[in-house]
Structures are given as C-alpha cells and as structure tokens.
Please model this.
Amino acid sequence: MKILLPVDGSPFTKRMLAWLVTHEEWLAASHEYTVLTVVPMIPPHAASMFPADQLKSYYEDTAEAIFKPIRKFTAKHDLGTAYVSKIGHAPEVIAKMADKGKFDLVIMGSHGHSNLMNLVTGSVATRVLATSKVPVLLVR
Model:
C-alpha cells in the first residue's frame, strides 16, 4: 500500500506514530510511506518584506524541525519513508496530495474533538475527510 502520513509535530502526530508501530500489519515491508508536513504560508504582504531566499529557508527549517524526530522514529523502526514538505492550507494540501499522488490510504492523528466542536471550529482531519477521495484512518 502507498500510505500518506500527514504530520505537524504535535502530540497527536506522536500518538499516530505510536499506534502505527503497535499494529504490525501496518509495518509490512510492502508498504510505501510518505510523511507530509504542511507549513502555513506567510501572508503575501508580510512575505514581501523578506528576501526570497530567507523565506525559502524559513519554510525548509520549519519543516525540518517537524521531520527531525520522525526521521529518528522511522529509522529506528526501519520504515522506508519519503519526506515531503508543502506550503499552504493543511487540509487542502493533504487532500490534494492524497488524491493526485494516488495514495491508497491516509493515516493521521486527530484531536478527538466532539462533533459539536468540529462544527464550531472545524479541524484538519474533518476537512481532509470531507474533501479527499482517498480513505482516511484517524488515530485518536
């Protein structure tokens, strides 16, 4: 299976990774993992105050700070993993990548809000569920 793992470095990412390793069926060598982080875009009016190379460095450094502990984790568990960082609005980028990248499954952590809370505030997981054509497995 081709599996997309959206991450943000939060405790919910850690919980999702811990769940993954406690379920051996997800650790098969036949699975292909891609770890995705989405860095929010700096508003254009603010971004215009910085040189392009500085902005690029900011986005790369932010993504790498999220990837660093996950790289250690995947190496420890011998998971063949690709790492991708994108800039934008997380739910849209995750759903678009899942669909266009022809992934079989998205596994992601969720805050575990109630339905009422999701109606009021929304969540990345809820929006990915609503917009992606790829099955999504939420870990709470």
Remarks:
- The two ends are 22 Å apart (CA to CA).
- The mean pLDDT is 89.
- The chain is about 50% helix and 20% strand.
